[in-house]
Every structure is written in C-alpha cells, then in structure tokens.
Design goal:
Chain lengths: ~120, ~110
C-alpha cells in the first residue's frame, strides 16, 4: 500500500467554525508533513512530524493546530480561519526525515474554502 | 540556503514528442537529492524521479529521465513520447542531507497537444 489518504476532499467553513483535516498512511513511514498550496504556487511547508513528535513548525499561525495521534495518522485542526487561508492542504509522508533525501508521498489534498 | 529555479512557466509539446523541463539548483552542500513531482489539476503531487548528488548515472523511470549536470547545477526532466495525460504542473524539488524539508521550484505547466 503506497497510498496517503486525506479527508475530506473539499471543505467549506466559516471564520468562526472549528474543523479538522485528516491524513492517514499505512506504509510504516515515520515522518509526516502538512503543506499549504495556493493556486499556481508551489507547496509551502507548514509542519513536520518525526516519530510522532513535532519537529518543524514553519511559523504557522496558531489557528492551525497539528496533531499526530499515532504513526499512521496526522490531523490538522482549524479554528477561526481567515479567507486568505483558503488553499489546497497537502499531507505527505516519508520513510523517515532522518534518512537523507527520501522521497515524500503525497495525498490528494483537501481544498479548503473559508468564507 | 538552497534554491530551485524553474524558468519555464509554461510549455507546449506535441503528443508523442519528447520534452525537456528545466531545473537549476543552488546549494553549497555537497550532499543533496533532487526530485521531480507531477501535479495534475486534481491536486495530488505524484513523485516521478529522484537523483542523488553522488549518483554516477542519470536516473531513469519509464518515460522519465533526469539529465543531471552537476557542474552546471542542473537537473532537467526529460519526458519521452508525451501523452495527453502528461498535461500537468511539474515541480522540481531538492532536499539536503539530514533533517531538511523539500524546497520546491515555482513549477512548469506542461500542456500536451493532440
């Protein structure tokens, strides 16, 4: 199984809502990532989890809250978002971020619209 | 700091022809990896091919090959026998040894014409 799954595929939320994005992989990978991608731009790294611990936070606003309940699951909790947070949110995993240049496998993404 | 440059915002290619997508990189670290990803309009980033800085031979993966010229710091992607399904955005990316995340270029949008 070389698949990373993400739910939901699409999400529309108001600025006062609380929602969560979910990501799951069953490849035994120990590093998981959240990226944000605006239209016609490359992905921007948000968070990296390594062995279920947050290892990188790219100065992301606190209205985005990541969580890694176990080695297969990664969540992104959303609260009080702004319209400019509307984007494609991509989850990725790799065997380990301690191995040089191991490829990341991406999920299909969640298209988020904040009204 | 490392940097990836893709100078072609958009490219057109005739079906069944070969096409080269350019990528140059900049790093002072001697140990790095270079990646190409394809992103169709559906959004998913699909890993295509990888080249390590110490690899002696250019990487190949089916119709994809990577023209790695270390002295020129270029890692161009060559797609042979283009298909309509190859129409997508293509990103070149780099990571350094150790715990460093991928750095992406701005991407090239490839359109394959029948």
């Amino acid at each position: 199984d070389t698949e990373v799954t993400q739910t939901p595929k699409h999400l529309v939320m108001g600025m006062t809502n609380k929602k969560s994005l979910k990501c799951e992989q069953h490849m035994g990978h120990r590093a998981m990532y959240w990226y944000k991608q605006k239209a016609k731009k490359p992905p921007e790294l948000m968070f990296v989890y390594s062995y279920e611990k947050l290892s990188i936070n790219e100065s992301v606003p606190s209205r985005f809250s990541p969580e890694c309940p176990n080695s297969s699951l990664l969540n992104l909790h959303l609260h009080a978002l702004q319209p400019e947070d509307s984007a494609l949110y991509l989850c990725a995993s790799s065997a380990s971020d301690r191995i040089p240049y191991n490829e990341q496998f991406f999920g299909p993404g969640t298209r988020l619209t904040v009204l | 700091a490392q940097k990836i440059t893709q100078t072609q915002p958009g490219m057109f290619v005739q079906e069944k022809e070969a096409v080269t997508l350019d990528c140059t990189y900049d790093t002072s670290d001697p140990s790095y990896g270079l990646f190409w990803y394809k992103q169709p309009s559906s959004g998913e980033m699909i890993f295509l091919i990888y080249q390590g800085s110490y690899d002696q031979q250019n990487a190949t993966e089916g119709r994809y090959s990577l023209n790695f010229q270390k002295a020129r710091k270029s890692a161009n992607l060559v797609i042979s026998a283009s298909q309509l399904g190859d129409s997508a955005m293509y990103f070149c990316a780099m990571s350094l040894s150790g715990n460093t995340p991928l750095v992406f270029g701005k991407g090239t949008r490839l359109s394959v014409i029948a």
